[in-house]
Design brief:
Strand order of the largest sheet: 5-8-2-1-11-15-16-14
Structural class: alpha/beta
Distance between the termini: 38 Å
Shape: globular
Helix content: 40-55%
Radius of gyration: 19 Å
Number of strands: 16
Order of helices and strands: HEHHEHEEHEEEHEEEHEEEEHHEHE
Number of helices: 10
Largest sheet: 8 strands, mixed
Length: about 300
């Protein structure tokens, strides 16, 4: 073997050795992956994300995927001649739109199941309706009625534990029921956060359309790779964080306070971002950790 080829082989070996302690640390631990944004609209990125999650499963993690589908829902709403409306980032969801959203989310769900099974791992797609997984109440946007949009008020994780115990990879569509069994569309970030807390996940990962957190979004040198939940709260209070990142960061800090060990915000547009963040020393996104783990910030 030529030296150049040998060097490439040795580089691969070094990558595997670097990943080993992380594989040992998180073996049999639950990781919830919220999958949405641009990573869902690009077929190549879709395949990369599913490969990453499948690999996590095969090396001993217990992954759960919670997916969105907002762009696809908007596309189908447009097909029937309706205009998508949003209030504070939340989709106004009348009865017809709810029907479309459920149809689209179930379609997305089963497509993700197919992609996982193509890679040799058994997956089961469920919605929050199944087994009473996601129980919710009506959500309002600053007091405004926005229709069938739900706030999760209880998670019954039994169906997820049963699937994990039988070695399936659960894939969850964010649809829930209220106490009168009305169907509600749930923000996928909220659903992922609620599920992560309920199953006491070791990690919660948000795949987003930005690289991670910045103190100043216009200053690339202000990127934050690691911070504690308290530091995240201080960042929120400072007014530096706005737009769609604000509720996401609130979800992150809430999850940490409720027992999730670590939350990651990653750019889902980067191929294999999940593996790079979890299995390398440096990582590529932003990790939010519990205050008690501040010594492990490096």
């Amino acid at each position: 073997m030529e030296q150049k080829e040998m060097d490439k082989v040795m580089e691969k070996a070094e990558v595997l050795i670097e990943a080993l302690p992380y594989i040992q640390q998180f073996n049999r631990k639950i990781i919830v992956v919220k999958y949405g944004g641009s990573a869902m609209s690009n077929e190549e990125l879709q395949k990369n994300v599913i490969k990453d999650v499948t690999l996590l499963k095969l090396v001993g993690f217990k992954p759960i995927i919670v997916h969105g589908g907002g762009k696809e829902i908007s596309r189908w709403v447009g097909k029937v001649g309706k205009e998508a409306k949003f209030v504070n980032g939340l989709r106004v969801t009348d009865e017809e739109t709810m029907e479309i959203a459920e149809m689209v989310l179930n379609k997305v769900n089963k497509n993700l199941v197919r992609m996982v099974e193509e890679l040799g791992v058994k997956a089961v797609g469920v919605s929050g309706k199944d087994g009473g997984l996601l129980q919710c109440e009506k959500k309002y946007a600053d007091g405004e009625d926005i229709g069938f949009v739900g706030d999760v008020n209880h998670v019954d994780p039994k169906i997820l534990y049963d699937l994990l115990e039988k070695d399936f990879l659960p894939i969850v569509a964010p649809i829930g029921l209220d106490e009168k069994f009305n169907t509600y569309n749930i923000n996928a970030d909220d659903a992922a956060c609620a599920i992560a807390k309920a199953v006491e996940a070791d990690k919660l990962v948000f795949l987003t359309d930005i690289e991670g957190l910045y103190k100043d979004i216009n200053d690339k040198s202000s990127f934050i790779s690691r911070l504690t939940a308290t530091q995240a709260d201080e960042l929120i209070a400072s007014g530096c964080i706005g737009g769609g990142m604000l509720p996401k960061l609130n979800n992150c800090t809430d999850a940490i306070k409720q027992g999730v060990n670590r939350v990651h915000i990653l750019d889902g547009r980067i191929a294999h971002c999940l593996l790079l963040e979890i299995f390398t020393n440096q990582g590529i996104g932003t990790a939010i950790i519990a205050d008690k783990d501040k010594a492990n910030m490096a």
